[in-house]
């Protein structure tokens, strides 16, 4: 055998060895990957409430990473660690939580959810961990001492809660009127300023708020409409998570951790949120500056990206609206009519909560917000674009077509430049409207400036001061945009 043959055999053996080594490595890595995947902790999506202290308390960044995140959040931390699973939150109004649970957007709801006969028909519940009752509170300046004195007056309640159920139960007997809200802090302030005579709410929530400075007093001698509180699940779904939650709740009770957590928020003074100095306007700005700036940036970012998407969508609708085809005209007119007719909040809830039930896939929060802006604002932009093109003198069309230009080339080269020049003031104004409309997305939990203010107020109950700060921030940014609009219009006019 010559040297060449030996060399070739060595190369073949070397390649065979490398191939075998690669296969072995892949096999070992495959086993390790399978082991990791088998032992990986599952991640669940938990729906919770934006403002429901002391059960859930967001920090100034809109998260639950602080020392006092609330009874349920502390429970969930310990249960997840004990039962070996991970979780992420979907934060919205209580009604939104229930809809999200019904449509499979979340795996469970942990938001002070009372167990009622009506809800048991639609949801499964964990082992209860708290017995809740409803109480009635009035302003501490009022002399109201009983429900009889509420006749002919307005009372407030949080929509979908036990407080709302109890208020409705006694409405006919005591002759008051009910107004519903999506959070707790707004009705508290409503009573505080005198718009309403009383508020019906869960006893621990009201007591915690009063302890943290809300100027109300409870007139109920004892809590009524007492119901157990538990974790809610969609009927027949997420059995494994239900088992983990039940095991965790039993462990918390047996070990005494449950009592420690509840006493921390309901009996001690360790969970006061802000000092008196921090509740002044300068103090609120200083203490929440990073959160406010993030909320402002989120608002501006949503407005910019939203209006860009709306311009693209609206331009397509506008072009279809002036096309030399009645079917395309009809499609454009129908789409514009539908999305201009739908209230933006309804559209946001439909996209974020209703649509996933149809398509079978969850829609991320920010994507749902941008899609809402694109469809809603795009319909208005479409009407503006169509009107701008229609306002171009018909002689321009005729001149372009007489030169042999195809329809769409005449549109692009001749009509569009003139039409867009006429549209610019209206489009800039629509951008300002879009920026303000981003506040509506707070209804589905988008953490823009308005939602940031809601979270901060939920912690310190300083509604007047915080909404004043938020309002000034909106005015400043809109004033800057108005100046930009005027500048652009002057430049175009030259």
Tell me how many strands there are: 11
Q: From N to C, what is the helix and strand string?
A: HEHEHEHEEEHEHEHEEEHHHHHHHHHHH
The best one-word shape is elongated
CATH fold-level assignment of the largest domain? MetI-like fold
How many discrete structural domains? 4
| CATH-assigned homologous superfamily of the largest domain | MetI-like
Rg from Cα: 30 Å
Q: How would a textbook summarize the main sheet?
A: 6 strands, mixed
Structural class: alpha/beta
The proportion of strand residues reads: 5-15%
| CATH level 1 name of the largest domain | Mainly Alpha
Q: How large is the count of helical segments?
A: 18
Rounded to the nearest angstrom, the distance between the terminal CA atoms is 92 Å
Mean pLDDT: 82
- Examine the secondary-structure arrangement and name the CATH architecture of the largest domain: Orthogonal Bundle
User: Considering DSSP H and I runs of 4 or more, what fraction of the residues is helical?
Assistant: 55-70%
Uncertain runs with pLDDT below 50, 5 residues or more? 3-14, 16-29, 31-38
Structural descriptors:
three-stranded parallel sheet, D-Maltodextrin-Binding Protein, domain 2, 61% helix, 11 strands, alpha/beta, six-stranded mixed sheet, 494 residues, elongated, disordered N terminus, 18 helices
């Amino acid at each position: 055998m010559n040297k060449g043959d030996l060399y070739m055999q060595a190369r073949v053996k070397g390649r065979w060895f490398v191939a075998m080594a690669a296969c072995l490595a892949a096999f070992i890595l495959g086993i390790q990957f399978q082991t990791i995947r088998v032992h990986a902790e599952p991640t669940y999506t938990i729906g919770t409430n934006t403002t429901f202290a002391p059960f859930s308390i967001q920090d100034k960044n809109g998260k639950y990473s602080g020392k006092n995140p609330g009874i349920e959040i502390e429970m969930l931390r310990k249960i997840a660690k004990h039962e070996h699973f991970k979780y992420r939150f979907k934060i919205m109004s209580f009604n939104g939580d229930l809809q999200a649970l019904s449509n499979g957007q979340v795996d469970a709801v942990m938001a002070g959810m009372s167990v009622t006969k009506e809800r048991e028909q639609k949801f499964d519940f964990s082992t209860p961990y708290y017995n809740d009752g409803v109480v009635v509170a009035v302003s501490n300046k009022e002399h109201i001492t009983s429900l009889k004195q509420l006749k002919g007056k307005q009372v407030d309640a949080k929509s979908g809660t036990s407080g709302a159920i109890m208020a409705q139960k006694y409405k006919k007997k005591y002759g008051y009127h009910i107004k519903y809200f999506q959070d707790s802090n707004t009705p508290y302030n409503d009573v505080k300023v005198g718009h309403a005579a009383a508020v019906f709410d869960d006893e621990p929530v009201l007591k915690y708020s009063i302890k943290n400075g809300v100027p109300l007093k409870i007139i109920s001698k004892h809590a009524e409409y007492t119901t157990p509180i538990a974790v809610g699940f969609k009927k027949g779904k997420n059995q494994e998570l239900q088992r983990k939650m039940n095991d965790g709740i039993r462990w918390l009770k047996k070990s005494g951790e449950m009592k420690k957590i509840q006493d921390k928020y309901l009996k001690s003074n360790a969970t006061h949120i802000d000092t008196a100095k921090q509740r002044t306007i300068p103090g609120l700005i200083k203490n929440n500056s990073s959160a406010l700036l993030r909320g402002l940036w989120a608002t501006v970012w949503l407005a910019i990206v939203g209006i860009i998407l709306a311009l693209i969508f609206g331009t397509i609708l506008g072009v279809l609206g002036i096309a030399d085809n009645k079917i395309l005209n009809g499609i454009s007119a129908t789409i514009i009519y539908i999305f201009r007719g739908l209230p933006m909040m309804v559209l946001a809830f439909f996209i974020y909560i209703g649509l996933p039930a149809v398509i079978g896939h969850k829609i991320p929060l920010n994507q749902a917000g941008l899609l809402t802006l694109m469809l809603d604002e795009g319909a208005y932009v479409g009407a503006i674009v169509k009107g701008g093109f229609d306002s171009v003198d018909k002689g321009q069309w005729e001149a372009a077509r007489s030169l042999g230009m195809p329809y769409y080339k005449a549109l692009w080269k001749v009509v569009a430049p003139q039409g867009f020049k006429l549209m610019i003031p209206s489009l800039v104004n629509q951008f300002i409207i879009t920026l303000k409309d981003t506040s509506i997305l707070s209804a589905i939990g988008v953490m823009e400036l308005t939602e940031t203010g809601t979270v901060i107020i939920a912690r310190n109950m300083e509604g007047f001061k915080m909404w004043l700060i938020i309002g000034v921030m909106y005015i400043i940014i809109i004033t800057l945009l108005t100046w930009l609009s005027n500048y652009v219009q002057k430049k175009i006019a030259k």
